[in-house]
Write a structure and sequence with these properties.
Blueprint (H helix, E strand, L loop, with lengths): L6 E5 H7 L3 H6 L5 E5 L3 E4 L2 H9 L7 E4 L3 E4 L1 E4 L5 E4 L3 E8 L3 E3 L3 E10 L4 E8 L2 E5 L2 E5 L4 E4 L9 E2 L1 H6 L5 E2 L4 E2 L1 H10 L11 H14 L4 E3 L20 E3 L20 E3 L20 E3 L21 E3 L10 E2 L12 E3 L5 E2 L12 E3 L20 E3 L20 E3 L22 E3 L11 H6 L9 E3 L22 E3 L20 E3 L7 H10 L4 E3 L8 H18 L3 H14 L4 H19 L6 H20 L12 H22 L6 H16 L7 H13 L3 H14 L7 H4 L2 H7 L1
Parallel strand pairs: 2-4, 3-5, 4-7, 5-8, 6-8, 7-9, 8-10, 9-11, 10-11, 10-12, 11-13, 12-14, 14-15, 18-19, 19-20, 20-21, 21-22, 22-24, 23-25, 24-26, 26-27, 27-28, 28-29, 29-30, 30-31, 31-32, 32-33
Antiparallel strand pairs: 1-2, 16-17
Length: 745
């Protein structure tokens, strides 16, 4: 039944003109026959069914436009590509469901849910009142304060339930366990019947996070890590923890921070990266103990308040990813007051330094990689104690002589920043402390080879590491003079198409690591280099001109890796299996294919996508692959750890032993013998830990020790892990364990 408005068939252009261009502003163009209701419209039952009754068999309809309010005593479900829907007033219905169609409504009320199902459509709303929003790989711009969000395909930051959390939280009658998705018809049936759709005690991600905050407050925890917990506003209970020393809120769509933040005067580390912030509260200046502040990845319009200049204890500031078309990030004049600042990270941010910040005496490290500006940041040349400077990925047109003011500079990275440089380089030999120099090639264009000839004419007597990769087609003549850099220990000459190296390369006396991948060095040259540097780690993979079988195996592995990177997990497993069963590759190819397959099984088995049955299948399938990875290790893998192959073996040991130890630790019928073997394995992995990125091994090591009753040994490992990676989220439960806190005190 229709009330007030009567249907009128017009062209889309006519309808758009009557609405003053509102249609093209919201939906774009290209539509044909449009059914226009000029005024309010009320319909009974399913929206499209009711509209069809009013149409009386008219031609194919591409768009429905209601200029006033739309009230539907039933669902609004537009799953096909046409017709689309535009409502100029308020919409009231049981549901709003969109598939391939373009749907644009303004404010509204939907009794049960708003649902966007994948494919080509879009769903945009004003402010709507609804208890549930369900998205499945759909372009949605829905503002539904108070609704519970379900992401059945990904893990959106604003989602209350996603991945495995769906099966854990919702009653089984409404869940497709194979895909971890809601069955929308069954879900709606229960909502209409007034039956519960959530399991008893089910909690959203943000509710669970607030429970965590409450426990931390009760335990007087000094370190609070809440990364990616789907918090949509700052948790108020945190302001009742004045003893807090660390607060990490990365990846939560908070939107803003409260002025009360300034009451946390003992706070030493604050990380609010990717939180949708546009500013910090002025009270930030009251955090007198703050040493580390990370605000990377917030809104492009983000600004730092003048109050930041009062952070006298600040040593590290991360302002990466804070500028785009909106313009540069202009630092406040008070920035010059940060005399204790030692490390500034501003990657992918165009920074404008105030004059007051020139000459900051404490700065020792500045990273401004990938800023996109063609202008060299002259301000960095005024920091007298700078030791590390990363300016890679910037399309500079010149490198000024003012760089030579930095006489204490030890590390300089200009990789991918020289493609447009045509002026001569400054004489870097006048930087007496320079140990590490990055001059990677390709950016906008390949740098002029004359720059290398200039480089090798400089007296870089302290240089220990040199990176000259991706300059495309280099010849040995472009490297003449490299033999004068007598202290070189690490050299990267990968992706250069080199067919030979100058003889003076063989004379470098301290060479320890050489990357020569993706060149065209023939066997005799490779043998010559290896003989000249018998103890160096030399990576000679992917030399053009290898045997057909080896090339085929390498290509198959690259294909498998591409499938892995695109998360086509089962296809990747099949591709790695093809290498394993093909038998045409090298021993390294066979080993790498097993490693790649094990990695895929771990990603699926310990991830959140897919059903529990699928994850279990992958976990179990990965166990024999991990065992085979260990079996394929050569007997002397520990001896040659300094070679590239040796580093690969260390990675295999880390990952495989962690995989096997974790499975043994969590076996449902585990025995003491299982735990003993888990410890034996993970201790092999622990020997191969090389940095903070391997903290996962220490996490497993600590848990195995706890299971064996060796608490003191476990807490030592936890302390070691936190020292290397204090923000490593999986180990935070152990960091906050009362037993660890008592032991550490």
């Amino acid at each position: 039944m229709s009330t007030s408005a009567t249907p009128e068939y017009v062209s889309y252009a006519t309808a758009d003109a009557r609405l003053g261009g509102a249609l093209t502003a919201s939906l774009g163009g290209g539509y044909g026959l449009t059914l226009l209701f000029d005024g309010d419209l009320t319909l009974d039952g399913d929206f499209l069914t009711a509209v069809d009754e009013l149409r009386a068999g008219q031609d194919f309809l591409e768009m429905i436009v209601v200029t006033g309010d739309l009230t539907v005593h039933g669902p609004v479900a537009l799953r096909e590509s046409m017709p689309g829907l535009y409502v100029g007033g308020r919409t009231r219905a049981e549901t709003l469901e969109a598939g391939d169609a373009e749907v644009r409504v303004h404010d509204g009320t939907f009794t049960y849910l708003v649902h966007g199902y994948h494919n080509d459509g879009t769903l945009r709303t004003g402010t709507v009142d609804t208890p549930w929003v369900v998205e499945h790989e759909h372009l949605m711009d829905v503002h539904a304060p108070g609704a519970r969000w379900v992401d059945t395909h990904g893990d959106a930051a604003h989602a209350d339930f996603a991945g495995q959390g769906i099966a854990d939280a919702f009653v089984p009658e409404v869940v497709d366990l194979e895909y971890n998705e809601l069955r929308i018809p069954e879900f709606l049936d229960r909502l209409r019947a007034g039956l519960p759709v959530l399991r008893p005690g089910a909690r959203t991600a943000s509710e669970a996070a607030l429970d965590h905050v409450a426990r931390a407050r009760a335990n007087r925890s000094e370190h609070l890590h809440l990364s990616g917990r789907k918090l949509r506003e700052f948790p108020a209970d945190v302001l009742g923890m004045p003893w807090l020393r660390t607060l990490v809120l990365d990846g939560n769509p908070l939107g803003e921070l409260p002025e009360g933040l300034g009451t946390l005067t003992r706070l030493e580390r604050l990380s609010v990266r990717d939180c949708g912030l546009t500013a910090l509260p002025d009270s930030i200046g009251d955090l007198a103990a703050l040493r580390v502040l990370r605000v990377a990845g917030n809104e492009a319009a983000f600004t730092l308040p003048a109050a930041v200049g009062r952070l006298g204890a600040l040593e590290e500031l991360d302002i990466s990813r804070l500028s785009d078309q909106a313009g540069p990030l202009v630092l406040p004049d008070t920035f010059g007051g940060l005399v204790g600042l030692r490390r500034l990270v501003a990657d992918r941010t165009d920074v404008v330094f105030p004059r007051a910040a020139h000459g900051l005496p404490g700065l020792e490290e500045v990273s401004m990689a990938g800023g996109g500006s063609g202008s060299f940041p002259e301000a960095v040349t005024t920091f007298p104690n700078l030791r590390r400077l990363d300016l890679s990925g910037n399309p500079f047109e010149t490198i000024p002589d003012s760089l030579l003011r930095l006489t204490r500079l030890e590390e300089l990275d200009l990789g991918n920043s020289l493609g447009l440089v045509r002026d001569p380089l400054p004489d870097l030999g006048r930087l007496p402390a320079l140990r590490v120099l990055g001059l990677g090639g390709r950016a906008v264009s390949v740098p002029a080879h004359t720059l290398l000839r200039q480089l090798f004419g400089m007296a870089l007597t302290a240089l220990e590491e040199l990176r000259i990769d991706r300059w495309d087609e280099l010849g040995p003549e472009d490297l003449v003079g490299i033999g004068t850099f007598r202290r070189l220990r690490t050299v990267d000459l990968s992706f250069n198409g080199l067919g030979d190296l100058p003889a003076e390369f063989d004379t470098l006396p301290e060479l320890a690591t050489v990357d020569l991948t993706d060149n065209r060095l023939p066997r005799d040259v490779r043998d010559r280099i290896a003989a000249a540097h018998p103890t160096a780690r030399i990576d000679l993979r992917s030399q053009r001109g290898l045997s057909e079988d080896t090339r085929a195996a390498a290509a198959a592995i690259r294909e498998a890796n591409a499938l892995r990177d695109s998360q086509r997990w089962n296809d990747a497993v099949a591709a790695y299996d093809a290498v394993i069963t093909g038998g045409t590759g090298s021993d390294h190819d066979l080993h790498y294919a097993h490693y790649g397959r094990m990695w895929v099984h771990a990603q699926v088995g310990y991830g959140t996508a897919g059903s529990e049955e699928e994850r279990t299948r992958h976990r179990l399938a990965g166990v024999p692959v991990a065992e085979e990875c260990m079996r394929l290790l050569p007997p002397n893998w520990r001896v040659h750890h300094f070679t590239d192959e040796g580093q690969f073996h260390r990675e295999v040991v880390r990952y495989a032993t962690n995989y096997l130890a974790w499975e043994l630790l969590h076996a449902p019928d585990r025995t003491r013998a299982d735990l003993d073997r888990a410890l034996e394995l993970i201790e092999q992995g622990a020997v191969c830990v090389d940095g903070a990125e391997h903290t996962y091994v220490r996490d497993t090591h600590a848990r195995v020790l706890l299971a064996l009753g060796r608490d003191a040994d476990a807490w030592r490992v936890v302390r070691q892990a936190l020292g290397a990676s204090p923000d490593f989220d999986p180990i935070q439960d152990l960091a906050e364990d009362p037993r660890y806190l008592a032991w550490s005190h």
